[in-house]
Amino acid sequence: MAEADPGIFRSIPAVRERQIADVAQLDAVLREAGEPFVVRGLVSDWPLVAAGKQSPRAARRYLLDHARAMKFTVSAGAPGTDGRMFYDAAMGMNFRTLQAPLPEIFARIDAQEGRADAHPIYLASIDMHRFFSGLAEENRVDLGERKSLDGIWIGTPTRIAAHNDFPDNLACVAVGRRRFTLFPPDQFRNLYLGPIDNTPAGRAISMVDFHNPDFERFPKFREALDHALVAEMEPGDALHIPSMWWHHVEGLSSFNVLVNYWWRDTPRWLGQPQNALNLALMAIRDLPQAEKEHWRDLFDHYVFRNRPEDVEHIPEDARSVLAPLTPESAERIRGFLLRQLNQ
């Protein structure tokens, strides 16, 4: 896979590195971090890292030793795409999504290793506990009391367009090298996002090709680069990506494995903000401007300001969803919305 033009990325500053001595310090740093940071060698003692340092095939054998007899979802791209998993000319996907047992997938990787016409192969966000036995336990970061979703990302050289995630993320490079290019949340205006419903993996992505940016078509991308950070990652390194930070991810080696942990500091029963945005696009965006302004005021009043004095005129035991939410009241809202949407 071709490296990004150093003339464009040479001046991007590196993500800050932190030294972590123990679980308590990692917990403290994660709690106060508002920007990404790298911890070199955080997971260098993992058996998976050791296998990968032997060879890509040794890493694949180690993974197969732990894989359950299940079909894995895998994306297969076309040769000549520089590993870029993206849209095609018709805004469909330039890759096929298939299901196959892991031994078959790895046999395909073995067969095309080193070939110029190799197909990019990518397994994204595979649940480590569901699809592997003992892998998560042998290769683990202690995150204290955080309840994380543990995923593994496996593939040949690939480029994943800049996107963001709602949960916080600790991304640990186990095999191969990776490059992350990161942008603060407010840079979405300069990243030229694509559709929010037709996406390669559920999140809106930047339409800019980071290896060959078209500054005539995407002139504001220059400003995004002024705010960018880059992390060049080796096996054993870990990167914390705070919630909503945009990140472009490149797998730079012939075989790449990343383990990541997602968590959120708010309860999961609060729901996904993206769902609220999708519903607002359907119900509010195309209203007359005066009505949109009214709904903007209501959102500001009830959601963004959310001041205690705004509901003091309602008896405390009668405030319903205007009171602080609980799992029970959140479930009532969810049921109410489902009934309304199905009418």
UniProtKB/TrEMBL annotation:
Domain JmjC: 98-278
Span of the signal peptide: none
Lineage top rank: taxon: Bacteria
UniProt-listed Pfam families: Cupin_8
Classification via InterPro entries: Cupin_8 (IPR041667), JmjC_dom (IPR003347), RmlC-like_jellyroll (IPR014710)
PROSITE patterns: JMJC
PANTHER family xrefs: HYPOXIA-INDUCIBLE FACTOR 1 ALPHA INHIBITOR-RELATED, HYPOXIA-INDUCIBLE FACTOR 1-ALPHA INHIBITOR
Protein's recorded name: Cupin-like domain-containing protein
Organism: Stakelama saccharophila
